[in-house]
Amino acid sequence: MAKAGQPRPPARIVGQQAKALYDRAIEAYKSSQFESALGFASAAIANDRQYGAAWNLKGVLLNNLNRPREALGVLEESVRLLPNSAAPHVNMAKSLLALGQLERCIQVAVQGLKIDPTNIEAALFVARARDRMGEHAASLAVVDRVLAAAPRSVDAQVMKGRLLLALGRPEDSLRALEAAIEVATDDDGLKLERASVLMRLNRPEDALAVAAEMIARNPDHAAALRFFGDFHFFQRGDRHAANEFYRKSLASHFDMRTATNLCFSLINTRGPEEAACIEEAQVLAALCIDRNGFDPQTAKSFSSVFERTCDFAHLAKFDLKVCAEYWATNDVPGGLHSLLSHVRTRADRLDLLAQHRRWGEIIVKRTAMTPIPPPIPTRKPRIRIGLMSSDLRDHPVAYFALPIFEHFDRERFELYAYSFNPGEPDRVQQFLTQRATSFRTIIGGTDLSIAKQMAADELDIIFELGGSTHLNKPSVLARRVAPVQASWLGYPHSLGLPTIDYLLVDPFLKPSPDLMLERPFEMPASWISLSRLGFSDSAQIADDPPVVRNGYITFGTANNPMKYSQALLALWAKAMHAVPGSRFLFVRPEGAVEAFRKNILQEFEASGIEKSRIEFRPVRGAHLPHYAAMDISLDCAPHTGGTSTCESLWMGVPVVTRVGEAFFERISFSNLSNAGLGDLCAHSDTDFVSIATDLSKDIARLRDLRKNLRQNIRRSPLGNNIQWVRDWEDRIAALVR
Questions:
Q1: In whole angstroms, what is the distance from residue 267 CA to residue 280 CA?
Q2: Using CA atoms, how far apart are residues 86 and 90, in angstroms rounded to an integer?
Q3: Are strands 681-682 and 519-522 parallel, antiparallel or unpaired?
Q4: If you compute the radius of gyration of the chain from its CA atoms, what whole number of angstroms results?
Q5: Helices (H), 368-503
């Protein structure tokens, strides 16, 4: 830089060829031909390594191609070459925001503002990063400063609307969006954003009327069709209707947001067309990833598809570290669930725990702006217990919660249940409704309104049972609705909210203190008890294990493919190699999906197992009878089975599990130990194969387990429902009194 009083050096002269390449890159960029533009920009840089504008353009293009990590390195060079230009700083802030590097994003954007205090985009990146950090009030202050200087900034008004909604002020959000619409009167995107707020205000008729008017004007209005798809999926729980609207929207205009929503709806579709829907999702997800590359914003839906089909080749394209950072900072805790299957080292486990903590801290910061009065323990004749879950219906969560509804001591306790499932109550939910002191179905409420309702019930303790799975609302507990808050059952990991005090565990399940965020709510024997709902005598057990009639051992699994990995399939293959002639049976609805079968067979063949030794039974729901064809269940690792392990044992089929350090690696360890089968728990891969091999040779034991295991379970902590509930109640009483 020139010293004060000295003339500035003349601007660099860019070579003619480099300038020509740059101009061609600009032309391609303006035509949205980003790959072509990237080639020209790279060529310009190769021709002149000091060409700062070309570096900046390359960074912009990489951002547009959803390659923020590459863009960051390029834009760092652009900032070095153009230190007095705000543009590279703004573009670099965009990369950092996408990567979840929020503090640095703010620093770089502020540098851009120092260069150009009027740069709205730089200010909005500061606001966006603050928003992601849960600092909504600070973010709103930045946006208000932007609007004071540029009151007609549509981007700022839209962001103000989103922030006010996050702050629990939907009416003010609506006014901000209407102010933006006054400026951009023909912007249908803004009108649909307003319609989304109307939906949050429980005005679905008004919201749908906005989208319906657009479709009446243009039957192929892609965004309005997507809005109807979102309504049917998220508000009505009608996947079939949602799929049709999403398909029509995509046929009109290909949009990544619509594609991700369709994929998510398809893989959650049930019924006779489930396999066809998974195949459709696989084709669409592969097309999107192959065309656009990895993008953390779409990773949750697409990775879920590839997990269902065991498409490890496409899964390898996902940067899981970036995914974890994005999901934690963008309130996508369900994405973190999928990472349980990917931990390999202790550092991985601690990193995963840190991301959960990061999500929880952001949510608590966000809700701090709209607090509810702190719960005050009051002297009531009975202790009030709350259970919150959208799965208090014909669902595995209800299988294990049922004993509480049937056996809680009504002289000592009151039981309040909260469900957020928009579907019609099934027979199980109707039964639970009759047994609870109060059963509230809350549909369409905000976290704030739900928290107020729960607090008004003056609970002494509340258990969330669903975690981050679909339709559940764990973030409600970010506002303390009860003096004691606990997590149990639905999510095999610490959720991350610092307002959750306890995690229900047992002596086998409990990990070391540094691998959980909560205090242990420790049961004396088992963390669950098997109810008559999912575990009845109506499921008949075959007299003999299939090896007796087949002459060979059949291993198998009914576990969800989200728990599979290439390393796990290779471990199963090692067990098969150790047991000559053995077969492997997959009892899964994905067995009807061509992509799933192809990928599974490919993995086993890579480990030297012929495809003729692998069998698929595509079953949804009515899968228990198929354990008659299985001698030994091989558990998943590191994310072990829960319900599947219990079902296998109930059907007289032993499970061999691989025990790890974390909560989700010890669930089967708990179930097997409480069933008297602790010797089937391996603490290394070598032991896993050895135990499976020895068990396969012990035909007498396999026969005995078929005959007696169910009765043994009834006499074990797993089967004694009443004692389990009494132990649970005693632990609660000790905490709240």
A1: 9
A2: 6
A3: unpaired
A4: 28
A5: 396-407, 427-435, 447-456
Q: Give which of 65, 108, 107, 62 is closest to 88, Cα–Cα.
A: 108
Q: Where are the alpha helices (DSSP H) in 617-720?
A: 643-650, 667-674, 685-697, 699-715
Using alpha carbons, select from 314, 245, 328, 318 the residue that is nearest to residue 284.
314
Give the pLDDT score at 380: 85
Cβ burial, residue 667 (10 Å; 0-12/13-18/19+): buried
pLDDT at 200: 83
Q: Can you say whether residue 696 is alpha, beta or left, with left for phi > 0 and alpha for psi between -120 and 50 degrees?
A: alpha
What's at 266, amino acid-wise? L
CA–CA distance, 180 with 194 (Å, rounded to integer) = 10
What is the per-residue pLDDT across 359-396, written as a single tens digit (0 to 9) for each?
999 899 888 878 898 887 677 899 999 999 999 999 99
Each residue of 253-269: pLDDT tens digit? 998 999 999 999 999 99
CA distance 726 to 660: 30
For 416, phi then psi, to 5°, come to -110, 130
At 731, phi and psi to the nearest 5?
-65, -40
**pLDDT band at 12; cut points 50, 70, 90:** low
Map out the domains of the chain with their CATH numbers: 12-133 (1.25.40.10), 383-529+722-736 (3.40.50.11380), 546-719 (3.40.50.2000)
Angle at 626 between CA 625 and CA 630, to 5 degrees: 125
- Is residue 173 within 8 A of residue 183, CB to CB? The reply is no
> Which residue has 């409480």 as its token pair?
674
* The two structure tokens encoding residue 558: 């009914």
Take residue 429 and report the two structure tokens written for it. Answer: 């939910």
Percent of the chain with pLDDT over 70: 98
Residue 277, C-beta contacts closer than 8 angstroms, at least 6 positions apart: 243, 266, 267, 269
State how far the alpha carbon of 434 is from the alpha carbons of 405, 437, 530, in Å.
9, 8, 21
* DSSP output for 489-527: SS-SS----TT--EEEE-TTT---GGG-SSEEEE-SS-S
Q: In one letter, which amino acid is 721? A: N
CB atoms within 10 A of CB 220: 12
Enter the tokens of residue 173: 């959000």
Asked if residues 309 and 275 have their Cβ atoms less than 8 Å apart, the reply is no
What pTM was estimated for this model as a whole? 0.86
pLDDT tier at 7 (50, 70, 90 boundaries)? very low
pLDDT in tens, 438-488: 999 998 778 888 999 999 999 999 999 988 887 889 999 999 999 999 999
Write the DSSP assignment of 256-267 as a string of letters: HHHHHHHHHHHH
Taking alpha carbons only, the member of 213, 273, 205, 277 closest to residue 246 is 277
Least Cα distance to 492 among 397, 632, 621, 588 occurs for: 397
Closest C-alpha among 65, 412, 444, 382 to residue 236: 444
300 contact partners, CB below 8 Å, separation of at least 6: 260, 264, 323, 327, 332, 334, 335, 338
pLDDT band (50, 70, 90) for residue 10: very low
The residue type of 366 is R
CA distance 274 to 54: 49
CA distance 53 to 22: 8
pLDDT in tens, 670-728: 999 999 999 999 999 999 999 999 999 999 999 999 999 999 999 999 999 999 999 99
